[in-house]
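I have a small job for you when you get a moment. Would you make up a two-line entry for one protein for me to read? No commentary is needed, just the two lines. Write everything out right here, beneath this request.
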Amino acid sequence: MKFWPFRQWQLKLVSVGLAVALWMAVAGEETVERGLRVPLELKNMPIDLNLVGEPPTVVDVRVRGTSGTLAGLTPGDIAAVLELRGAGAGRRLFQLTPEHIRVPFGVEVTQVVPSGVAVDFERTATRRVPIAPTVEGEPAPGFVVGAMTADPKEVEVIGPASAVATATEALTEPVSVAGARETVVQGVSVGLLNPLLRVKNPRASVRVQVLPGPRERVVQEQPVRLRGVGTKLAAKAVPATVDVYLRGTRESVGNVGLTDLTAYVDLVGLGVGRYSIPVRVEAPPRVGVTRVEPAAVRVEIQSVPD
């Protein structure tokens, strides 16, 4: 086909006009320079190495471009990229030049601060350490915490060789036994205090035994108090005393005296008559009341003459 330069001359004319307009718009903008703080990305980290310490997370750069181009930048448009492929163990110094800065078209990097970044690498090591369950709270009065076990019993720790060598145990998030009267089983997360270390499988099931206190004691002839007796009323309990059976640790139960317990019946809202009312007992913390004998007393309520 014979070439004809004026074929579709209208479209060619429009294209030239658009190009000239675009050039004039860009040429009309002034060139500016701006300082920015941008993230530092570590690329291609060797799988057999671990970072030791904290390398910088940001660097300062100065960029140049048209005012419109720089005004349209978003936080993710510019980043410093550090290539770590081929790095070995030990302290390494990496240069940071404008070529290491990723920028969009039309933006030029004029300066990078710092010009170099020191990074410490250490060989990756693994080791199995026992899991140490953690509990919080107190079981119900009269109950104590028994054996604590984790399933699995051990966990694999991964990290820099020097940090792995010092790891002795992994901890769990606290398992609450507050108010418990029976064994508590709970799934929890597992971790370590050293931030350089990580756990391969960070979950475990913790079983905490909650058992009745090892010692039982009876406090005999505890007076029964009458609470809530209405105005112009008098009440009498038969029998007037009860035996209170306690359970707890040797220390907590052994220190309880008559003045430390309060046995009572609640008469609020009751009028003249005869009633059989359960006896309630207030005991010190960590001391459980297992039973009261008799469990209920007969109460006679009479009116008081004016």
Remarks:
- Helices lie at 9-28, 67-71, 161-166, 250-254.
- Residues 215-303 form a domain with the RNA Polymerase Alpha Subunit; Chain A, domain 2 fold (CATH 2.170.120.30).
